[in-house]
Amino acid sequence: MKDTAPMHAFGNLVPAVLLRLDRNPFHHGTLGAVRSLGRKGVEVHAVVEAGGGPMARSRYLRAVHRGPDGGSGGLDPDAPEALLECLAGVSERIGRPAVLVAMDDLSAIAVARIAPRLGERFRMPHQPDGLPARVADKAELSRLCARWDIPHPETVIPASGAEAAEAAWGLGLPTVAKWSRPWLLPAGSGLRSTTLVHSAAEARRLYERSEEAGCRLLLQRFLPAGPDTDWFFHGAFTRGGHPLLAGSGRKELSWPVRTGLTAVGRWLPDPAVEEAGLRIAERLGYQGILDLDFRRDERGCFRLVDFNPRPGAQFRLFTDAAGLDVVQAMYLDLTGQRVPEPVPWPGRVFVAENYALLAAVRGRQLPFRREPSARLAASRRAPAARADAGPGPGAAPGVPAGRRPGPDETTAAATPVPVPAPLATAPVGAGGPAGPVRVVPQRERGRVEAAWFATDDPRPFLAMLAAFLGRGADKGARVLRRVPAHGRRTARAVVRAPRQRASDLTPPAPAAPSAPPAAAAEPDELLTR
């Protein structure tokens, strides 16, 4: 049997540089990457906003380097000379080549632009043809999904205010309005990447701000939110879109409620989500880390709603039983080391303490809920075993190697699309040959990992808590009172409001002009504004 013992040698250690151009000192994903690599003895540097926020207090961070323009997030990814100069200076200070990890969309897009000019200074995933910008562009993503038969919400790209109003009415109200390239939205404009609009007049007014936004407006059919509708997929891929580590999970709580980032998430294998994630990475020939967001529609179909060409803030959820996560897997691959065979750990839970508290209070929902017995049993089932000549990655049990399973076969498969698994042996099927399968001890399942608190690195949590409480007296009441109005409207639309479509009602007369609609605050603004 193939040697699959966990091996995290991290030999010939190469420094790592984490880049985040988004101005969000409470970005817990950056802290997760610092700890993930730092605990393995890697020298970790961070290029972020001045000061670095609570993350800068981590014992595993060697140094914080101020980003271009003070880390204000105002960098133009099409003219990233300031970033090139900044990274060159960081490289000079480190004194040797380093692995570069982009932690937000703007960073991934800008780095892809300047990658050929970074020379031998940094090791990074090879992303051809401006790929990060293409997949992060929500208009381009809708075209890619249509081309590759990836389920996606019905989307309209209006060419005028009248078309925007007509599209909103045709898609059904409420409807979702998105800016195709949210990283271009000017600071202080009040524009948000995603807004739930409740009238055709709102859609028209939003379209009329397209020039100010610097990108196109999209309107998408609203997919009702519920307790089992929001899912995500994380993966690390080597050249050719071959998976190193991948998994699917479900949002238990999000902030803002039902519309925002993952406040509490659980690792739950789902064949449809994993097959879609692996397929799109293979089609793109994707190399690097990605984070995909899915929402399940009324018919149970998972629809891809967002593609993030970088680690998701909750990537540490997908830490296998041997401690491997997507950031470590990518680091090992880029430094020419062997990536250990993953040991999946379904049932694992991730909690972002600050957002989970707000989401639980506003949503009146416990952070953890009892898992239905059928789903829990499925998540605990061992990954598909692989005989020496059996199906390869992406195959379902009983499907010949080299052919992807069809929809019926995927649904019928007892296990999710596998990422490389193994250790013990178990039967592949009734009367089938035995293959290697890693079984995680029952007592280890359900382990909870916090985004901020860690017994071996408590200072970031204390710094976050001090900032949270210090601003809470003034801003906490405002956060709980005003910001979640978007979440309240969404919940009412899901539970009570009948959907309105052009075929059901006659459009109302045009409304008199009024001020642009107020949008919900982005998660990163809840504690920084």
Structure keywords:
529 residues; alpha/beta; 7-stranded mixed β-sheet; 5-stranded parallel β-sheet; 18 strands; disordered N terminus; disordered C terminus
Your description of this structure?
- This protein has 529 residues and is of the alpha/beta class.
- It is 30% helix and 19% strand.
- The chain has 15 helices and 18 strands.
- The strands form 4 sheets. Strands 14-13-10-11-12-15-18 form a 7-stranded mixed beta sheet. A 5-stranded parallel beta sheet has the order 3-2-1-4-5, with helices on both faces.
- Helix 1 links the parallel strand 1 (16-19) and strand 2 (44-48).
- Helix 6 (161-171) runs antiparallel to helix 7 and helix 11 packs parallel to helix 14.
- The longest helix is centred in the last third of the chain and has 23 residues, at 459-481.
- The protein is globular.
- Mean pLDDT is 78; it is low at 1-7, 379-446 and 485-529.
Helix content: 25-40%
Strands ordered across the widest β-sheet: 14-13-10-11-12-15-18
Q: CA-to-CA gap between the ends?
A: 56 Å
Catalogue the unreliable spans. 1-7, 379-446, 485-529
The beta-strand count equals 18
Count the DSSP helices: 15
Radius of gyration: 23 Å
Strand content: 15-25%
Structural class: alpha/beta
**What is the average of the pLDDT values?**
78
Give me the secondary-structure topology.
Blueprint: E1 16-19, H1 28-38, E2 44-48, E3 61-66, H2 81-94, E4 98-102, H3 105-114, E5 122-123, H4 131-136, H5 138-148, E6 155-156, H6 161-171, E7 175-179, E8 194-197, H7 200-207, H8 210-213, E9 217-221, E10 230-238, E11 242-255, E12 261-267, H9 271-284, E13 288-296, E14 302-308, H10 326-334, E15 349-351, H11 353-363, H12 373-380, H13 407-412, E16 424-427, E17 434-437, E18 448-450, H14 459-481, H15 485-495
Parallel strand pairs: 1-2, 1-4, 2-3, 4-5, 15-18
Antiparallel strand pairs: 6-9, 7-8, 7-9, 10-11, 10-13, 11-12, 12-15, 13-14, 16-17
